[in-house]
Amino acid sequence: MPVARMLRQVVGQMPGRPACGCWTSAPLARFLGTSPRQIPADANFYSSSFSGTDQPRVLITGGLGQLGVGLANFLRKRFGKDNVILSDIRKPPDHIFHGGPFIYSDILDYKNLREIVVNNRITWLFHYSALLSAIGEANVSLARAVNITGLHNVLDVAAEHNLRLFVPSTIGAFGPTSPRNPTPDICIQRPRTIYGVSKVHAELMGEYYHYRYGLDFRCLRYPGIISADSQPGGGTTDYAVQIFHDAVKNGKFECNLKSSTRLPMMYIDDCLRATLEVMEAPAESLSMRTYNVNAMSFTPEDLAQELLKHIPEFQITYNVDSVRQAIADSWPMNFDDSNARKDWGWKHDFDLPELVTTMLNFHGSDTRVAQAN
């Protein structure tokens, strides 16, 4: 089945739209070495397109996913609204469209991506287009096209135009043979999901482009990211987002992971700050191109107990999804992020109590707490 037709069919079947926005009716497969621009064997690119006193010109791909809008708002406060361009293939809601520059961008269309970079004088690119773990397992061909072929396009454009490139990685880049508690930056990985395989591929390709062509590639392995103002995006750690919606609305939550499943997590404010900090870090301070970052590690039971302090009538039940549980059981229980803390001064702000208080304040739990009291 042609990939373009498959993309359109799969979208209609998915429980939620993917965070990538990357299907197209144009020819999709453009692999490294077949682009209009061949990278010379002796190429030696460096991100010198702006000085330290200039503001970067930023493009965010997959911008309507879980993290893109928050990152755009965060960066616009720092660099100015007009210097940060959000992109996706989906039509944005009004408040996003009017909040700052937004354009159509399909990462599977190399020509479109290249034109955007040239026409907007982009110097930093944040590549957030991806299908997450659970959705990726249901749509392997789509995940392969978006997560791998799309990455190749981004790498080529970034190398050609001397961009500083950020590609997020994940706890899903590790597998059942990885050390789990804690998981260091460098160890055996061997993930068993297409999402994890594609992220290991991204880490290694980015590092290769750095050493082969001088591309300024930077990458953080995110833990599960918890955000108050976005909906779950099809990931295995999404229970830690959905639980707050359900707790405030219904006073109960059905969890699809076992109560004892421990995973590393981070509040979105820490995630966005870590992302900007690693992008702004002097190149000479980076001893590696891909870093673990962490804030806390907890189980569904730990989270439920903290919620009970605020919503005494809250109830949690468990209906384990075997696919998601198998994925979670292959992932790290805790990240060792000592290199990030040593090299560029990473330090998180939110632990579990601060996380729960912040999330409930955002969702307006005062009424329910008052009723319980």
Automatic annotation (TrEMBL):
Provide a Gene Ontology MF annotation, just one.
L-threonine 3-dehydrogenase activity
Q: Which chain positions lie within coiled-coil regions?
A: none
Q: In which pathway does it act?
A: Amino-acid degradation; L-threonine degradation via oxydo-reductase pathway; glycine from L-threonine: step 1/2
What SUPFAM superfamilies would the database entry show? NAD(P)-binding Rossmann-fold domains
**Membrane-traversing stretches:** none
Short name of any one Pfam family annotated for the protein: Epimerase
| InterPro entries assigned to the protein according to its UniProt record, in alphabetical order | Epimerase_deHydtase, NAD(P)-bd_dom_sf, NAD(P)_epim/dehydratase
Q: What class of enzyme is it?
A: oxidoreductase
Listed CDD domains: TDH_SDR_e
Q: What does this protein do?
A: Catalyzes the NAD(+)-dependent oxidation of L-threonine to 2-amino-3-ketobutyrate, mediating L-threonine catabolism.
Q: Which family does it belong to?
A: Belongs to the NAD(P)-dependent epimerase/dehydratase family.
Protein name stated in the entry: L-threonine 3-dehydrogenase, mitochondrial
In which organism is this protein found? Panthera pardus
Q: Which gene encodes it?
A: LOC109262385
